[in-house]
Amino acid sequence: MHRMKKLLLIAATASIALAGHAFAHAHLKSSVPAADSTVKQAPSELDLTFSEGLNLKFSGVTVTGPDKTVVKTGAATLMDGDATLMVPVSDKLSSGKYTVQWHALSTDGHKTNGSYSFTITP
Q1: Distances, alpha carbon 97 to alpha carbons 65, 72, 78, 79, in Å
Q2: Where in this chain does the record put each CopC domain (predicted)?
Q3: Dihedrals phi, psi of 2, to nearest 5 degrees
Q4: Residue 32 dihedral angles phi and psi, to the nearest 5°
Q5: CB 39 within 8 A of CB 120
Q6: Which of 15, 32, 77, 102 has the fewest CB atoms below 10 angstroms from its CB?
Q7: Considering only CA atoms, which of 99, 33, 36 is closest in space to residue 66?
């Protein structure tokens, strides 16, 4: 009986360790402009902060404007211990709703992606 309890304990410990590893993905924690926000001034950059460090070579964004055209952006850089992706906005943004589609590769090799929107008022 003692041996069975020991095996169950080992199995439980292993599953907890694996579950913790499975959750090690770079999830978007916050953004500037914030998701679903309305801003009065067009941003000159987008700052996306993730739950862990990113691999810059395989992380980025695509921004589309109110007319569904792609907004020109500059080269992204990493800040804050490689957890914040800073993307300069090259185009002058007019009023309307913008969608940011992002993809990220965490430093431990996990891929994630998602999207959010923000609106610029006149």
Answers
A1: 6, 16, 26, 26
A2: 25-120
A3: -60, -40
A4: -130, 115
A5: yes
A6: 15
A7: 99
Which architecture, in CATH terms, is 26-120?
Answer: Sandwich (2.60)
Q: Which two tokens stand for residue 26?
A: 């770079």
- Of 21-25, 43-47, 94-98, 107-111, the poorest mean pLDDT is in 21-25
* β-bridge mates for residue 113, sequence order: 103
Q: What average pLDDT does the chain have?
A: 87
pLDDT at site 25: 87
CA nearest neighbour of 69 among 35, 40, 33, 93: 93
Q: Which token pair is 80?
A: 């804050």
Residue with tokens 């992002």: 102
Could you identify the residue written with the tokens 């395989």?
58
Does residue 22 carry a pLDDT above 70? no
Give the C-alpha separation, 37 to 46, whole Å: 13
d(CA 80, CA 45): 16
- Which residues on neighbouring strands pair with residue 63, listed in sequence order? 100
